[in-house]
Amino acid sequence: MNQFFDALGQDWVDAAQRRGAAINKPALDSGVALELLELARVAAHTQERRFAPLTCFMAGVAAERLRTAGADVDERAIAEFIQEVRQKLEREIPGL
Questions:
Q1: Cα 11 from Cα 19, distance rounded (Å)
Q2: Which runs of consecutive H residues, i.e. helices, occur in 19-74?
Q3: Which residue, 82, 92, 32, is CA-closest to 62?
Q4: Is the pLDDT of residue 51 over 70?
Q5: Average pLDDT of span 18-28
Q6: If DSSP codes are grouped into helix, strand and coil, which group holds residue 50?
Q7: Cβ atoms within 10 A of the Cβ of 30, count?
Q8: Domain boundaries in the chain?
């Protein structure tokens, strides 16, 4: 996506390696990134602003569990998965 996230992906690889694990370098798709930013915006208006990063973390965990469950998903499908939940949250917030 950009240099910052490319370097951050390598940081995760390096940190995993120091723990004796080999992982593929995580990458951030621009469509998924956009949905995560929108999810963070909505989450910041639901309860407390500080919930936004945790909401995005949960989205990442859920997306990986969807993949692990054997769902045939690509990055576009992951973005749509996140969008579905974000839109549900938006409908629950009056005036958003």
A1: 13
A2: 30-46, 51-68
A3: 82
A4: yes
A5: 95
A6: coil
A7: 11
A8: 26-91
| Residue 90 identity | E
The tokens for 21 are 């694990």
d(CA 80, CA 96) in angstroms, rounded, equals: 20
Q: Which two tokens stand for residue 52?
A: 């936004």
CA angle (52, 57, 63) in 5-degree steps: 125
Question: With 70 as the cut, is the pLDDT of residue 96 above it?
Answer: no
Q: How is residue 51 written in tokens?
A: 């919930």
Q: Which two tokens stand for residue 71?
A: 């769902």
Other CB atoms within 10 A of residue 85 CB: 16
Dist. CA 48–CA 12, nearest whole Å: 28
* Global model pTM greater than 0.85: yes
Amino acid at position 8, single letter: L
Asked if 80 contacts 34 with a C-beta cutoff of 8 angstroms, the reply is: no
Mean pLDDT of the chain: 93
Stated as kind and residue range, the H or E segment containing 12 is helix 3-18
